[in-house]
Input
Amino acid sequence: MKKGIQIKLKQLLIIIIVWMMLGFVIAIYDHLILHAGISNGPVESYSFMLSVMRNVGAGLVGALLGGSLLVFYVNVKYRDKPYGYTILVVSISFVFVIAIITLIMAAVIVPLQTGQPLFSPASKEAFYAFVTDGYPLKNGLIWSFIVAVTQLLMQMNSKFGPDTFWNIIKGKYNTPKREERIFMFLDINSSTAIAERLGNEAYHALLKDFFADITDPILENNGNIYQYVGDEVVVVWKFRAGIENIQCLKCFFALKKDIEEKKDKYIGRYGLIPSFKAGIHCGEMVAGEIGIIKRDITYSGDVLNTTSRILGECKSFNEELIVSSDLLAILDYEKDFISRQLGVIKLRGKQQEILLMAIKPSISTAII
Output
């Protein structure tokens, strides 16, 4: 199963669990209000268990319908739209979902209440009373708010990235931690010339399309986007995830393949196909949360500086991918890729020397 689908299914599962829990909380809230001193008390037909079933069932059905709509449609089709726009769209759309849920819940609960088939006269009357009661309207308002908040949280998750957002919520990096990571610094070739040729607005559109198109291949290869810097993107892997099945190397060529498959789009819109180069390195760094008004998790350490320097050497050696020998030494890459030593090089601004290796696909891999 593709990584992108796994992420979406995980999001949907979280929505299902949380919405069912919220349905249970709503049932308890209703029960407390009905038995409060300001209330005349529940009607004779009231049942707490039936209320729980009704609200938890609404949460389940709502999550399966509305949650799936959010995860698999809205946040895919409208992922380049403003956050406020998507929140408004889902809030309005969920009015229709609420109507569907109300009809489904009525079809299930009414026969239980009447003890008769749904199409019997007594059940038809009870069905009409169920769907026109103020109770569904109250729940509709509550669930519309829940949906809007859910969409807002999903947009925040998309903005920060899955790992970063939840780590901020959990406070995992409130205290800085030392970790081993693999970094890939990637940038577009001849970006200055392209920007001058296209103009600022068209060039920005090109970057937006390019960064959007490379997102899925990065996720499919277990990487995460750390940050964008101009025409450069920094990809990071947890150490084990990056070396497993040499995902950190395969990722670069997966990106090339994806852009090549979309070449007609780029030629049609911009008159060119963006090419790019990258440097990859691994090492220990410190991850920690910073900021007050705008919080983020940042990585610091020599490994980032070194990876940036390696990227800079791509132009000097006219290579599209350069990897440090430190990383290649722990990768079982010979079946899929061939390497060529570029020599022991003293990177600009650094005293330590490092052996750099140019990487290309093997003939069999290139044919595939």
About this structure: The chain has a mean pLDDT of 86.
